[in-house]
Amino acid sequence: MDQMNIFVNTMYRSAFSKHEQMKSMLTRIVEDYQKQSNNTNIRHINTWQSKDNFQTNNAFKHLSESTEIKDFCKDIFKQYDIKQGQSIAITRASVQCVMPGGCLTKTKNTNSFYTGMYFVTSEPESGGLVIDNPVSEYYFNNIPVENKNALNSWQTYLPMPEGEIYFIPGYFDLSTTPNLSKEPLSIITFDFEIIKK
Question: Is the pTM of this model over 0.85?
């Protein structure tokens, strides 16, 4: 009997090499965005969120034109054999600030091929990222196991280390555990799409 893998759930992680150089500038910009733009948060708990236009800010170029983003795009091109005349582009970006006691509730970026999450400021107690498996929870609840692990659990819990970037497939449901630190957790979220050149 042959075993065939039907679904491939691949995410990527990279440390942003210029994080220490960029942290103070990005922290200042996040504070400016909070003062100048309305909170578009309609689903998260105790969280401020900007409009989806942060990709137009000149400071975002430091991230979007970084080696880490370029390397990710090259890997995706090879892995998915993207057609000639198509390209990968960041079409939306926003800033999210999770206040102490707050969290990001479960959401799915359905208009995103991959979603990038860059943790600008994050304390060890800022919580963790929760990724739901697209398979129904019912399936995993019926697996007779004593110890849950990454292979037999409905959810995967990941730390959110400051200065790291996660690249997550857009069809995953994402949320965070509550921010138990005394400082806000600042995240820049950006969506990749396959577009025509």
Answer: yes
What count of Cα atoms within 13 Å lies in the side-chain half-sphere of residue 175? Answer: 15
Can you tell me the distance from the alpha carbon of 140 to that of 7, in angstroms, rounded to the nearest whole number? Answer: 16
DSSP string of 81-142, one letter each residue: TPPTTEEEEEEEEEEEEEEEEEEPPPEE-TT-SEEEEEEEE--TTS-EEEEE-SS-HHHHHT
Please give, one letter per residue, the 3-state secondary structure of 155-193: EEEEECCCCEEEEEECCCEEEECCCCCCCCEEEEEEEEE
The lowest-confidence range among 54-68, 88-102, 142-156, 172-186 is 142-156
List the one residue out of 30, 3, 6 whose CA is nearest residue 118: 30
